[in-house]
Amino acid sequence: MSTKYVVKESFAGFKRAKLAAFTSVTALTISVLLLGVLARFAFSAMEIGQTMRADIDVEVFLMDMDEDRIETLRAEFAAFEPVSGVNYISKDSAAAIFQKEFGTEGMSLANLAFLPASLKLQIHDEAETQAIVEIVGRIEGYRGVDEVTFNRQLLEILEDRMQLVISAGGGIGLLVLFTALILVFNTIRLTIYAKRGLIKAMKLVGATNGFIRRPFQLEGVLQGLLAGFIAIGLQWIIFRFVVPYYIPQFGLLSWPFEKWYYLTGAMVLLAIVMGYFGSSWASRKFIRESRVSN
After folding, report:
1. Measured between alpha carbons, how far is 163 from 1 in angstroms, rounded to an integer?
2. By mean pLDDT, which of 31-40, 104-113, 214-223, 267-276 is the weakest?
């Protein structure tokens, strides 16, 4: 009987405070939608950054030396912590690469064989700039090494931008979450106020605060569930029609972890959790205050 009452009262809350319920669902929808869009853009930005970072190599230009010395250097450099692989580029290979990049205009220069042999070091994606700088310093001290190059400026810019994405995205996300919780809190408060007479009557017949709170908590869950599905639909419209139309280069944004259901499931779950905690917060506070005033 109590379960039936809880379910019935939770749905009845939508009718008693229609404007408040609409406001709450709208706030939750907008909040979850903003977080979903932000998450997808942030994930794509991080993915692009990781791709660009993976293309940053350390290239070690070598003086003329025998193959045994080259192999020794290759083995020693491969043992360094941030290094994931080492490729040897001979003079002939360097000339071929030069000709491929510059076309027939570079053919006469490539035939001069002025290009040195080199070792190209692939670096782990998670390696920090300072660790790479330290490795470069060590390599420069090796006998037979002429010059060591890597795009330090680009790597530092990528790290700064990725940190900015994480910090800004996290800050905006927390602000949106807090705002939505406040709106749900106020909505449930209005619903409780509209039912203050019924709450007093239930307390007179011995109903516990926990029993009185359950319909409001379920109402918050239902609001979150509804808001979550609406947010998913709006997100699909945004990324299916709006974004490709106005920003074509963003029309193929990848889903987090390459699957659509991770983000959409997280959006629905987040909306439910926000609805539950917002309603629990409000109902606990105002039902307790009602008890004290009586």
Report:
1. 54
2. 104-113
Joined together, the tokens standing for residue 81 give: 């912590």
Check whether 292 has a pLDDT greater than 50: no
Tokens of 260: 């659509």
- Compute the distance between CA of residue 210 and CA of residue 280 in angstroms, rounded to an integer: 10
Residue 102: both structure tokens together? 């510059």
Q: How far apart are CA 232 and CA 226, in angstroms?
A: 10
Provide the H-helix boundaries in 80-208: 91-102, 107-110, 129-140, 152-194, 196-204
- For the four alpha carbons of 43, 157, 145 and 95, in that order, the dihedral sign comes to positive
Helix (H) or strand (E) holding 149: strand 145-149
Q: Which of 85, 78, 35 is nearest to 232 (CA)?
A: 35
Instruction: Say how far apart CA 152 and CA 168 lie, in whole Å.
Output: 24
pLDDT tens digits for 150-159?
A: 877 777 777 7
Label residue 212 by pLDDT band (50, 70, 90): confident
What is the distance between the alpha carbons of residues 119 and 110, in angstroms, rounded to a whole number?
19
Q: Under DSSP, is residue 132 helix (H, G, I), strand (E, B) or coil?
A: helix
108-to-105, 111, 216 alpha-carbon distances in Å: 7, 5, 81
Q: pLDDT for 84-105, tens place per residue?
A: 888 888 877 776 766 676 665 5
Contact 13, 21 (CB under 8 A): yes
pLDDT at position 251 over 80: no
Beta carbons of 287 and 192 less than 8 angstroms apart = yes
